[in-house]
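pasting for ref
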Amino acid sequence: MKSGDLPVFPLAPEPVRPGVAPTVRAQTHEFEEFARVTGEAEGVDVVIVNTCGFIEAAKEQSVETILEACGMKAAGRLKAVVAVGCMVRRYKDELVAEIPEVDLFMGLTELQGLIPALRERKLLPEGERVPVMERPLRVLATETPHTSFLKISEGCDHTCAFCAIPLMRGLHRSQPMNALIAEAKSLGEAGVRELNIISQYTTEEGTLAADMPDQLPEPLKMERMNELMDLQREISFDRNLNQVGSVKHLLLDRILQGDESDEEFMAIGRTEGQAIDVDGVTNLLHGAELKKGEMVRVEIVDALEYDLIGKVVA
């Protein structure tokens, strides 16, 4: 399980949506107790699995991760497994019936009761105050601790017939500006060099279209998808070629070592136009000694379909 799978929970929705009086405050998540949060699955008492119920592959991955955590519990490596997130909100009854090994299934609006619920089940000791749970719940990835997401809002007010986001994530609500500034400052103090501003997870391809009637045959769907992907590869390659010769700032994500080392490339990073986990990367040719999380200037010397190739310049 990866630390990046852990959720980020918005606390206070603001501004108020049109038609709602400004005096109305939507629910905030106030944690009555505190708990230490970690991105590592080993040596913990409770594993929280953040599920996704948007697309079939995400559902399968969520179930696999839950079962993996249940396996750790059965082996005595942890006390409890908690499942939260979109899939729990949508399929809670089915999950409770199918995976009884899970101690708690909780929707996003139920999380303020997590610690009391665990104590009620004797999974955490009574009366002990365990510091410190972050607000919002955020854990920096151990692989790239120099970068983090900063989530500014959650949910969506547009109840499109093909989309499940309002059903699973609720109506739109935004983080207050002062809370965002405070979180960004704390992340910077923790060593974060890059903040990726995100809102609702539209990249999760959350739609109801797959369940609509009159579906096309699967072979035809795949044929059309492949045609689109071929076209997109051409477009991406042309755009990347246009960047050859330019000089950019690059954030170094990984030094290639051991089995992943490459005779040609020494490291992998991203320029200003390459968002983590979304866009391509820039492969760095062998040259200067570098450190992960370092910001360097690179010249783009070649292009691939989705990625760039660069060398460090003074």
